[in-house]
Amino acid sequence: MLKVYGIKNCDSVRKALKFLKNHNIPFEFIDFKSSPVGEPEIRKWLEMSDLKTLFNTRGTTYRTLKLKALNLNDDEKITWLAKENMLIKRPVMCFDEKVIIGYNESEYLEKLPL
Asked: Which pLDDT belongs to residue 113?
């Protein structure tokens, strides 16, 4: 089953969930706030994607934590993603050993089992 990771009040997550409902695609929603993901899950996602896509440098959390000034290496970024899930670009969709990160309707149409 398709798993969607994110937070309920995120605009991108809401759009993605609406897309899935409109296309009758069953999914399980996992909220980062009530069920945080750890480093093993993040590393699994990175086997199917890349850190530049997963690590959200445009969000409030990134700016608030002043992470740009730390000049983090990849392992440090992964540690931060596990420690602070709000740094993960949302939504993260996992299915059939594939992952889609962020809201991208054309990618959904191409890759999701419609």
From this structure: 82
Residue 41, domain CATH: 3.40.30.10
Of 2, 3, 10, 65, which one is the catalytic site residue?
Answer: 10
Domain count, the chain: 1
Respond yes or no: is residue 10 known to be catalytic. yes
Angstrom distance (rounded) from CA 41 to CA 31: 14
Task: State the DSSP string of 22-51.
Answer: HTT--EEEEETTTS---HHHHHHHHHHS-H
Give the domain extent around 44. 2-111
Is the predicted pLDDT of residue 114 greater than 90, yes or no?
Answer: no
Distances (CA, A) of 3 to 25, 60, 106, 107: 11, 25, 19, 16
Asked whether the beta carbons of 93 and 3 are under 8 A apart, the reply is: yes
Tokens 């309920």 correspond to 8
What pTM value is reported for the model?
Answer: 0.94
